[in-house]
Amino acid sequence: MIFVTRKAHFNAAHRLHNPKKSEEWNRETFGKCNYPNWHGHNYVIEVTVAGEADPDTGFVIDLGKLKGIIREKITEPCDHRNLNLDVPFMEGIMPTTENLAKAFYKELKEEVEAIAYDDSVLYSVKVFETERNIAEYCPYRMKE
Amino acid sequence: MIFVTRKAHFNAAHRLHNPKKSEEWNRETFGKCNYPNWHGHNYVIEVTVAGEADPDTGFVIDLGKLKGIIREKITEPCDHRNLNLDVPFMEGIMPTTENLAKAFYKELKEEVEAIAYDDSVLYSVKVFETERNIAEYCPYRMKE
Amino acid sequence: MIFVTRKAHFNAAHRLHNPKKSEEWNRETFGKCNYPNWHGHNYVIEVTVAGEADPDTGFVIDLGKLKGIIREKITEPCDHRNLNLDVPFMEGIMPTTENLAKAFYKELKEEVEAIAYDDSVLYSVKVFETERNIAEYCPYRMKE
Amino acid sequence: MIFVTRKAHFNAAHRLHNPKKSEEWNRETFGKCNYPNWHGHNYVIEVTVAGEADPDTGFVIDLGKLKGIIREKITEPCDHRNLNLDVPFMEGIMPTTENLAKAFYKELKEEVEAIAYDDSVLYSVKVFETERNIAEYCPYRMKE
Amino acid sequence: MIFVTRKAHFNAAHRLHNPKKSEEWNRETFGKCNYPNWHGHNYVIEVTVAGEADPDTGFVIDLGKLKGIIREKITEPCDHRNLNLDVPFMEGIMPTTENLAKAFYKELKEEVEAIAYDDSVLYSVKVFETERNIAEYCPYRMKE
Amino acid sequence: MIFVTRKAHFNAAHRLHNPKKSEEWNRETFGKCNYPNWHGHNYVIEVTVAGEADPDTGFVIDLGKLKGIIREKITEPCDHRNLNLDVPFMEGIMPTTENLAKAFYKELKEEVEAIAYDDSVLYSVKVFETERNIAEYCPYRMKE
């Protein structure tokens, strides 16, 4: 099994706020991340595809095409945008790093698997909010 | 001459918009950086002090104290904030990387030089908006 | 399944020496790492928690609280310390990167899982002795 | 289970070209990577061994010896070389990142497992062609 | 004085060989860098412009436009190319890191200064052949 | 003027303690850095040589030879050592980052300039104690 990873990045604003909860609950739960006037990050994402290499090309997936899909589905809609207000596929979802990883995975899965070799799968999406805060969504790695 | 540097970081939202100019001028000049709902960055800053080392301590400046000044003057007011709306010393200044470097330098100069050894000076402040976009304010390095 | 990772770091001295073995065996086995007057590293650690995200907060675990637990259990006892002499939970354990990863995992497990959402688990602890030498303790990833 | 990783690097030239296919197919499939006069990369590799730590040494594997095997089997034959023309174990194999990871794994497996503790295994080999393009060969991590 | 830096990167093959000298001299002088079948690098470059910020834009130079000039003048001609054979402005020049930095500076100077604010200058070009081998061409920083 | 830089690294233990001062002064001045049982760092150093490139080789200095000098004069005596106890050229000097940069410069100057082209000079030595704490000794860059 070969795991191929492509890195990308974008810059966006966001804020953590659960509109179903009180202001006080939000302040206590999210602290600085709840500040009203937004803050932002240089997000880095790693998209990993797992499968075998096509004997003709030596590729599990053409990384140039994968780069194009990531740009169209993730980078273009998110870059220099507000993740709470501007990104259609994040509507109604709080933009925590966890939720971003899961939402990006869903956005990418179909198109990525359509161009990957044979029965390769979109294995995981990892999102770095900062160098220190990271979330990875991976439906194939079990905890037990 | 010894140059001592301390690195710090904060996450903030901003937007480039010159209120004295038309919407059209702003869109054309700033492109994606002018999007109305803000975007943001993981800012990294490098503060450099130049001087000789105190023979008793071997320090040009106590980096623990320098860290404290950077936190109080820069990180606390900027972290998880909106650089256009929330930071008193940026009022009326467009938050380009250039202007941030210059404003941070002014904020830090007096307190930093007060605790640095002998006649050491605050030599420069460097701001990384991203890994690829960087501005440094340095009144001591001339272009000719 | 979502994997959330928090990075931390500390600086410490250590030395590899097995007191049950001869001086000669130690010199031959550990080479430079056996030098008598200690050496040291900027250790980086990555703590990963696996589980689902709490629908109210969007968090598998509150990274601010995780940061606090890592500081209390690992960074405070280890930072600027001698891993052979000063750290209670390393008593009688040779401070190889492997043993540090395992010991840190044990120190963190209970408190981390107590604050993580639902039945999330402490998935792994990764220790970077240098950028080139790395050990990860993970009881959930099997080799077969 | 403990996973121990050693990082190494080398600089090499390569070109993607499948001699069984037409010039046109190659240009279309590989784009810039098919340019006739070669291009090159600073390759970084991560070699991971999985097992338990030897109670006498605290090591899953002696990283100094692992470094030596990586140098002898991978770095020496590949460094400052042309991966299409100069490397015996790559003969007849297109030097994509995927194929390099798999070939390096095969080159290393026997010697690495011979010196690792007990029944530890060579778990994976990860190759970074650039910071953004990465392939990992791992026969132990399944996709389902 | 403000120093604004933009980072870029490209991948290329090269070889150090002085055709005016004997094979033996070349082998002895350049060692592995003289191997006949080329090797290559992930080159990183940093382009620095020095000047004052335009009060209307807060920019010393529009980094989007600088990025475009670097792409047109440096990245496009060099990326996935052979620096000895394919790059017009390197004809007759040995592609050491030193010579690349100087040649890139000359290629960029006129166009960069034409779009920078007021009398800003192209201050320096820094080329990273690897993370460990770096050359910077800077006509404004004197050694004495 | 071209500035050529070579990076190197070593791991060492140290402690900040001025034997001419009281225990109390030392504890107050150096805090955690004064802990009695040592701590340590992964030191990174950058050695920069300034001059013109030799027209025959395209080198300001042969980086392979510079690497050898750095190893002989700095890395060999310091790696896996205690900077307070084991390094002859640090005898009687407190191992702050500032003092290390200055001492390394003195150790390297003569041998480096002997092999650099023409009248090139050892321009600076930069020492990273951590990624965040950095000191550079440079006798050629003035503060005014």
Strand order of the largest sheet of chain A: 3-1-2-4-5
Give the largest chain-chain interface (CB within 8 Å).
A-D, 23 and 29 residues
Supply Rg of chain A: 17 Å
Strand content of chain A: 25-35%
Largest sheet of chain A: 5 strands, mixed
Question: The CATH topology of chain A, please?
Answer: Tetrahydropterin Synthase, Chain A
What letter string, H or E per element, gives the SSE order of chain A? EHEHEHEE
Number of strands of chain A: 5
Helix fraction bin of chain A: 25-40%
Structural class of chain A: alpha+beta
Task: Specify the CATH class of chain A.
Answer: Alpha Beta
Q: Helical region count of chain A?
A: 3
Nearest-integer average pLDDT of chain A: 97
The quaternary state of the protein chains shown equals homohexamer
**Number of structural domains of chain A:** 1
Uncertain runs of chain A with pLDDT below 50, 5 residues or more? none
Q: What characteristic shape of chain A results from the CA principal axes?
A: elongated
Distance between the termini of chain A: 20 Å
Name the CATH homologous superfamily of chain A.
6-pyruvoyl tetrahydropterin synthase/QueD
